[in-house]
Amino acid sequence: MGIKVYKPNTGARRGMSIIDRSHLSKKRPEKSLITILRKSGGRNVHGRITVRHIGGGEKQFYRMVDFKRDRFDIPAKVSSIEYDPNRTANIALLFYRDGVKSYIIAPDGLQEKEMVVSSKGKVDIKVGNCTTLENIPVGTLIHNIERVPGRGAEMARSAGSWCKLMAIEGPYAQLRLPSSEIRLVPKECLATLGQVSNPEHMHVSIGKAGRKRHMGVKPTVRGKVMNPVDHPHGGGEGRNPIGLKHPKTPWGKPALGVPTRKHHKSSDKFIIERRKKGKNK
After folding, report:
1. Residue-range definition of the domain harbouring residue 246
2. 86-132 residue pLDDT tens
3. Number of domains composing the chain
């Protein structure tokens, strides 16, 4: 796995790069584990655009990924490592010993024909195995972590993500998140050992606007090039600054660096140390 950089034969190719996926399986996705992915265009149930810059893009099947890993103590063989167009990480197709098939987020280093297992007891400290936080040694890198036991993984699921288990104290485990935040999670929650696959994703250069359109992302227009009627940053003759002390959204709310987390949120008591601005540990 690595980054493939194109020769600058054209202006669009200059600086463009992609992930080398030559090591991934070329077969089509498992038919029993896919469903139609319908486009929303950023519109809600009333037909109003609530998320801007969404539209178009290639047709995709949604791969149904097992985030619960609740088939306990049944060994599974890794049949293939596959590309998933709906997420930044790769996925792994598992064949369980009892005949059931499922997709999971593929950890970095997992190979085809390896055996993995999910259990609430102790398991081998091996990439791809899944167990509760209380059974994992302190200092281990983990991903695909539950916040509430039995709900399914919600943390550290994107390409290259990982959390570090810092300590087990009382009913909670202390985790250092990718944002450097230290958070308490019930020790009965499940987590998968290892780091999420495809860590080079962050180094990919899109290169041209058309490639972004294929991803279903429409163009974004800067507020400062609009008219005053359209955006708080708009107006002025020639090249002008925004003319405000702080940047704003099109609807007048503060933007860019303003905390958006609600005050006195119920989960505040689980956060031991806030993330450090500008750092990613």
Report:
1. 223-270
2. 999 999 999 999 999 999 999 999 999 999 999 999 999 999 999 99
3. 2
